[in-house]
Amino acid sequence: MYSLLIDHLSTAVVQVNRELGIEYLNPAAEMLLAVSRRRIYGQDIGAAFHENEESIASLYAAIESGHPFTKRDAEVERANGKKLFCDYTVTPITGTMNTTDSLLIEFYPRDRMKRISQEDELIANHQSSKELVRGLAHEIKNPLGGIRGAAQLISRAFTDEALKDYTQVIIEESDRLRDLVDRLLGPRQLPQKAPLNIHRVLERIKQLILVESDGQIELVRDYDPSIPDIIGDESQLIQAMLNVSRNAMQVLLEQEDNLHKEIKIVTRALRQFTIGANRHRLVCKVSIIDNGPGIPEHIMKTLFYPMVSGRADGTGLGLSISQSVIHQHNGIIECNSQPQRTEFNVLIPIETSSQDKETNP
């Protein structure tokens, strides 16, 4: 009866002996750790998961002392190499000789809550930076108009063409600064939304990247043809995803080695997926993955801020504008990066009306 109850728990449970050999996993643990209990029964605990040497020492200490403990925000590596963010509780099981015979380890995954928290932080930070840029743009454009107007009036008063050239420089530089401010603000028009196939957008991007890279980069596509049409502005979505893809292309082209350079575009449909505070029944996920050197850790948290770039000649506007466009489509852009694999995930709800959107409990 007890075994039947544990097998039906939604909590992942692993039992190990005094030598940390695996004695039992319930189905929830098999699913969470992506292992089969029949294949790893009797093997060392590392066959199921591994954290670090300190965590192994803590397990042995629990066996000797008989005291339970809980580890918060642990980053566990599963047998397939993938990371798992979780809390886990270790409870010693006392035998007939009043000694610890085994340990019961209960896992509580936090991946979903961690992702939602990161998304909330990303949305809040992007909104704050957008408000800051709007205020700054207003303060810059007002005096710029006065400077430009004054230069035009002075130019009319001069008869010497050489002096007019100086006023023309003032006018042109004022226009250039105004254009930069407009780019900081992102798209000035509201999206003209209509049903569209996301793969048509991605095929256009593929053509542009292949031309711009002059065949130096291999572009791999992995599309899910079952994804229904989304509601969006085709031209704005092309620009948003092209900015992300072009960043990947430029980073790869800057590498001086002769390693294989590849950008992979993957599309998938996600069900019952949460973006920010809202849960959507169906979401389109576009992953743009490159095998470049990765994004420096010190700019990861500010990656979508205006004027932030990891490249010496980068403007830092592309990703900020892309995030603004995707926000206007009720979506978000996320990024995960490590050497040889940088992945940007563009998430856009597929619902056609706000009635399909549910508040996340």
UniProtKB/TrEMBL annotation:
CDD domains from the UniProt entry: HisKA (cd00082), PAS (cd00130)
BP GO terms, sorted: regulation of DNA-templated transcription
Gene Ontology molecular function terms on file: ATP binding; hydrolase activity; phosphorelay sensor kinase activity
Catalysed conversion reaction: ATP + protein L-histidine = ADP + protein N-phospho-L-histidine
Name of the gene: glnL
Keywords tagged on the record: ATP-binding, Hydrolase, Kinase, Nitrogen fixation, Nucleotide-binding, Phosphoprotein, Transferase, Two-component regulatory system
Function recorded in the entry: Member of the two-component regulatory system NtrB/NtrC, which controls expression of the nitrogen-regulated (ntr) genes in response to nitrogen limitation. Under conditions of nitrogen limitation, NtrB autophosphorylates and transfers the phosphoryl group to NtrC. In the presence of nitrogen, acts as a phosphatase that dephosphorylates and inactivates NtrC.
The UniProt record lists the keyword Transferase: yes
Family annotation (Pfam families): HATPase_c (PF02518), HisKA (PF00512), PAS (PF00989)
EC number: 2.7.13.3
Name used for this protein in its record: Sensory histidine kinase/phosphatase NtrB
Domain Histidine kinase per the UniProt entry, residue ranges: 135-352
